[in-house]
Amino acid sequence: xxxxxxxxxxxxxxxxxxxxxxxxxxxxxxxxxxxxxxxxxxxxxxxxxxxxxxxxxxxxxxxxxxxxxxxxxxxxxxxxxxxxxxxxxxxxxxxxxxxxxxxxxxxxxxxxx
Amino acid sequence: xxxxxxxxxxxxxxxxxxxxxxxxxxxxxxxxxxxxxxxxxxxxxxxxxxxxxxxxxxxxxxxxxxxxxxxxxxxxxxxxxxxxxxxxxxxxxxxxxxxxxxxxxxxxxxx
Lengths: 113, 111
What we know:
Chain A has 113 residues and is mainly β. Helices cover 0% and strands 51% of the residues of chain A. Chain A contains no helices and eleven strands. In chain A, the strands form two sheets. In chain A, strands 2, 4, 5, 6, 9, 10 and 11 form a seven-stranded mixed sheet that branches. Chain B is mainly beta and 111 residues long. Helix content of chain B is 0%, strand content 59%. Chain B has strands spanning 3-7, 10-14, 19-26, 30-38, 45-50, 56-59, 62-66, 70-75, 84-92, 99-101, 105-110. In chain B, strands 2, 4, 5, 9, 10 and 11 form a six-stranded mixed sheet that branches. In chain B, strand 4 (30-38) and strand 5 form a beta hairpin. The chains are: A mainly beta (113), B mainly beta (111). The interface between A and B is medium-sized, with 24 and 22 residues.
């Protein structure tokens, strides 16, 4: 099915481990985004990418790494997970035109123990 | 600092009882204001984009309006299936497409 998918949908990991969250979109959208959603903070931007091989930091990038070798994929890696990174992570994408609306994936619920 | 504030945080309505949700913003330059609906355990679902003061958009029982300082999401004769969290976001003057989100209003419509 066309759209934006995330995997895994649920993940439990231990403090200090590396974990990668995957995001895949079939629309060929230029822009992709990673957000985290926490009670009391709403949605906060972690990283975004304007095109393959172009990425930039958002509001809360510390402890995260991204890459974008292909237009359709935008993985987010937690290099050494901490409890404060327990959250729900959403990937989003949008076209390059001036409409600006972003379309979101179903989310990954990550728990760091 | 760019900021988006939504009120109320939570709203309980009886089925058929119309009301409005508020999104006020303080930004350096507005390129667009977006409304999303989010159901529990799901990603935000795009509803509307508003670009300039005076603009209105409608979809079923929802109507979004925009002024220079705030936006309203009016819900007319809501049904229980309208229960969700409604998020407001703004796109500031930038080519990056970054959105700044409010914290949302959780709406519960009782039958």
